[in-house]
């Protein structure tokens, strides 16, 4: 016979699930609108929505020409949000990103000129092309959700999503993001070339006389409500323990019968990794229109959350071991609740 407490929990989960199904009704509509412009790349689009709803930011790695700019621009139009693109170059200054004080000769006073970071959707294109000062200015805005110009601090508007890109092929003349800064991104998404059938459709779409018109199908208020609703999604204690075990296995592989991984890992995921794994799993459940988190949700987002948080040792790099292989071994060994 079920206890009263268990019955109450089931009723609560059912109520949350019904609420999330209503609140997430816009997801299908939004995906349909984005797919007018973006063919294939479902993984990337879902991760953009996870970052947006989970109030995180995304580091996107892929060769040029894979619709990274188009994807975030299309998303901003479908949500009726402001969009700005910052092309990171070696001569860029922090003021070019966050803004600066400009002297007005007529009024004999300084006025604030806000930078491109003051937008709902910010594309930081090739973030590793600019020096550390500029990277830090953007990352501070991402973390604090505010910018200080002169003596005044300005809050950034919600929703606020930064999509930073980097080219994995060309490393000449780049400034590698330090681990502590990379850790501030909720997800690192690696995208590959489209399938042959998708590429055929992409060519046909680009040969059309008139490009697809993206309509605003979701309001910013819908997104803000979704951000609040994600926090209500039910996550069982066993799922939280599953997250702790996965992250723990990246720090102390020996404790999880993964002794062969110990020489390959310099250091494992930080507590921020655990938090982001939980938040991303909740956001993923929301995108899938569910009011509760399953172990499959953790596994689905695990690669994107952890791949930039596990530092490989010299031995791993020398033997060409990929971080994805380490995450795969961890997921295969850690017991699923």
What would CATH call the class of the largest domain?
Answer: Alpha Beta
How many domains? The number is 2
In CATH, the architecture of the largest domain is 3-Layer(aba) Sandwich
Q: What would you report as the Rg, rounded to the nearest angstrom? A: 22 Å
Q: In terms of structural class, how would the helical and strand content be classed? A: alpha/beta
Low-confidence stretches: none
Note the overall shape: globular
The amount of helix comes to 40-55%
> How would you name the CATH homologous superfamily of the largest domain?
P-loop containing nucleotide triphosphate hydrolases
The CATH topology label of the largest domain is Rossmann fold
Number of helices: 14
What's the helix-strand series? HHHEHEHEEEHEEEHEHHHEHHEHH
Measure the end-to-end span.
23 Å
Average predicted confidence as pLDDT: 87
